[in-house]
Task: inverse folding
């Protein structure tokens, strides 16, 4: 008889004189003890229990609009006061680059345009603003005294701040059964502070590639793209993680390479050898290009930079010089299965770069159950930049 207790590490007793059947419900490793006639321990084997997952591969260029969950501090500036002194009130209050201001005077705040009135009220009343901010996952409070700018005649905080970001990337997959998507393959960071953006809300939209700035050694290129006029919102953005952006999507976007779903491969199944990527180099047409997976890193737990890839397709090399920024998220397909996504380009060799395993993206999308094991990060072996 076969008995399953339902936990991830399941102990199974199998009687060899009876048929064996195993119905997997989620990913994991099952420890199976085999007994002869149910009595004598014979051998312990490991069986991979993986769901039969299928998703629709992406490749479409998407526009990304993100609104942060607060006001991000991206710099300090000096304010010239009436007495001739120069100082930054925000810096004196202890605010640093990358801090996320979430409340002012006890009120939640996530729009820069709403700050001017609060600053003017506090300045005219000669009182400090009570600032609640988030730094490295921890909340803290401080007092900030606005200063009257002697040149502009306005009350100033001495801070450069931002509440939103926009850019382009590539859709990796759409999972129609769950109504979710994954894209980019790496975290979205603020361009000035290089800190991950904590998403308050966001959207992905149709985008059109207008031109390519080719990659050269030491100078990664980029896709030049624009949002399609009156473009349809493809989905929302709910999470920004080390493996990309994720959210709800209710239908497969137009201009797909194929509307058919394909199976996925898990990290341990990916092999060195030929593969393909799906991406856009002109307009909205998704094309298939040949690559080589030149190195695979064994990752029993989620970590970025799971594989090293090399562009081998002459058409793509002639057009882009290799991997370019905006190509991040391009799905990697091997032996008819989705195995990962392009994430970074090597600055010193733009024909090569990193890819992440699709398994980790599926976990962050909520399609796969997450492992209880802690995340680890393998160190890069070459200088790379997000593609």
Result:
């Amino acid at each position: 008889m076969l008995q399953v207790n339902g936990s991830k590490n399941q102990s199974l007793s199998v009687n060899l004189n009876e048929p064996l059947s195993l119905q997997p419900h989620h990913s994991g490793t099952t420890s199976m003890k085999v007994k002869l006639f149910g009595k004598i321990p014979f051998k312990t084997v490991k069986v991979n229990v993986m769901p039969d997952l299928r998703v629709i591969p992406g490749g479409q260029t998407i526009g990304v609009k993100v609104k942060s969950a607060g006001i991000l501090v991206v710099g300090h500036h000096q304010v010239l006061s009436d007495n001739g002194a120069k100082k930054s009130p925000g810096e004196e209050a202890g605010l640093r680059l990358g801090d996320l201001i979430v409340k002012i005077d006890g009120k939640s705040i996530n729009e820069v345009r709403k700050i001017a009135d609060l600053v003017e009220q506090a300045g005219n009343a000669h009182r400090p603003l009570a600032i609640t901010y988030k730094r490295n996952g921890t909340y803290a409070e401080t007092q900030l005294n606005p200063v009257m700018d002697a040149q502009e005649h306005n009350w100033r905080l001495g801070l450069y701040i931002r509440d939103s970001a926009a850019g382009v990337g590539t859709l990796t997959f759409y999972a129609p059964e769950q109504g979710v998507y994954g894209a980019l393959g790496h975290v979205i960071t603020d361009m000035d502070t290089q800190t991950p953006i904590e998403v308050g809300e966001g959207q992905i939209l149709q985008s059109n590639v207008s031109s390519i700035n080719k990659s050269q050694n030491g100078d990664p290129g980029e896709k030049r793209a624009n949002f399609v006029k009156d473009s349809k919102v493809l989905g929302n953005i709910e999470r920004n993680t080390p493996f990309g952006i994720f959210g709800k999507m209710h239908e497969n976007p137009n201009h797909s390479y194929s509307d058919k779903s394909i199976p996925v491969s898990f990290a341990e199944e990916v092999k060195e050898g030929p593969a393909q990527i799906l991406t856009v180099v002109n307009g909205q047409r998704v094309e298939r290009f040949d690559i080589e997976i030149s190195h695979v890193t064994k990752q029993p737990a989620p970590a970025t930079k799971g594989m090293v890839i090399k562009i081998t397709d002459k058409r793509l090399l002639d057009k882009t010089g290799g991997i370019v920024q905006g190509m991040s998220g391009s799905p990697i397909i091997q032996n008819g299965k989705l195995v990962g996504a392009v994430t970074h380009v090597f600055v010193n060799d733009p024909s090569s770069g990193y890819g992440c395993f699709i398994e980790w993206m599926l976990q962050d999308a909520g399609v796969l159950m997450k492992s209880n094991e802690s995340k680890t990060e393998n160190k890069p072996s070459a200088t790379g930049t997000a593609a």
The chain is about 5% helix and 45% strand. The chain has a mean pLDDT of 85. Residues 266 and 359 are 6 Å apart (CA to CA).
